[in-house]
Amino acid sequence: MPALLPPALAAELGALHPDQRAAATHHANIAVLAGPGAGKTRALVARVGYLLATTSRHRGVAALTYTETAAHETTVRLHHLGLHPGRRLSSTTVHAFCLHHILRPYGRLIGDPLPADLTIPDTSACRQLWDTAAYESGLDVNPNNRTTLERLRRLIAAGEPIADYPRQYPRAVRRYEQLLRDHDTLDFEAMTIRALDLLRESRTAREQLVARFPHFVVDEYQDLGPVLHALVLTLLDAGVGITAVGDPDQVLYAYQGASPRYLTQLSNRPDFRRLRLRVNYRSGSALISAGHAVLGQDRGYHAAPGRDDAGAVTILHADGDIDSHAARTVEVLNNRLATGTPPEDIAVLYRSKGPLLDALTTAIRAAQIPLDSEKQRRRPSGPLADLIAACATRRLTGPLPGPPPQTSQHRAAEQPASPLPEPFASWPQPGIANSSWPTTTTRPTPSAPCHDAWRRSWTPPTAKPQPTRRGSSSPHCGTP
What we know:
Binding site for ATP: 34-41
Shape: globular
Strand order of the largest sheet: 3-2-4-5-1-6
Oligomer: single chain
CATH topology of the largest domain: Rossmann fold
Domain UvrD-like helicase ATP-binding: 13-284
Mean pLDDT: 82
Distance between the termini: 39 Å
Pfam families: UvrD-helicase
InterPro entries: DExx_box_DNA_helicase_dom_sf, DNA_helicase_UvrD/REP, P-loop_NTPase, UvrD-like_ATP-bd
GO molecular function: 3'-5' DNA helicase activity; ATP binding; DNA binding; hydrolase activity
Number of strands: 11
Strand content: 5-15%
């Protein structure tokens, strides 16, 4: 292991499970197959940190995820490990990366620059464009055809076979693409499709992208569809080092063309190391065995050593229609509540939205059981909301997982002093180079008394507090 790693990163690597450490420090392409609760995020962040620490300071790392929340968490955790890479790190969603790091800077290389007044259409606008394209191509306008066209669009972009589709369908896809251009719009799928086309066509774009980001770390790879997988293969052929992390046993975006076979194909390549994280830090042995039973095969997952809570899996049968299932659920909830289980410790999961969810929420509320249903409550966005959320998280959980924070002497020697104490030091700050406030148009000038007040009032916890009641006293109802 290199001797000049930041102390916090070196300590974190030493604290990892040997398989996690191997995933983080491998010197070439690697596919990490991480089962549930395997510490995937911790290993991924350590991998990004290791690549940043061992790569020239003039080059960077692209850490691609599917959600802005996951991208932000990666950055925060890296700061906790003593890494403040600035522009060397692009921790963002795959679509945002395609837009800001491929299409905008390199579109002119192939004579296809993005319009200055580019807009991103919402779901309703995209639906209208699809319906127009279908109608003008001689197809019936209905949701099934729309879904088929969206799937075909991905296959065409990835260069996969489409011979089984009648000619009206490819015609409708081409018409939809033209309608997007006519309206100076770019939907999310077009971001990846046009980025793939650009990289395939422009050698200069490939070379410049590899020069800036020689390493790509892709999270939740099993949720990549054919276009994004083709994009990764194009980058791989251009010389980018790829780290793919995912679980081939779970796919959330199958309706968008995602398939675990792309992760499996990548892990089976001769130029990739295949590594499986088998320790489950989240579940007991009974739950792990139940998971193997559902999969129909033993993946070799096991509970963390020293865990004596096996957990329990109880199968309850409910005869009849959906309303009968909902009534059975209410019966189970009442039994749990009567035996002292706090409502906030109960989660009711369902396969998908629809009649079952409607029946569940109706029955639970009719029984006067307090319920915090999926997406019922939304917190505002912006720096202030993030500040409050960070304070609440720190109060409940203590410091972030990993080694203890560096001393003030170490921090002062390695980076400019921050005007804010932990955990706010990792946030974008006015007056500091490369800072950005994503939800404001101008950078406000903070008052010194405000900073001083934060400084005086903040006392970092010395130990993780005992578990406390969290959230509202309501069961949570949501998709798994």
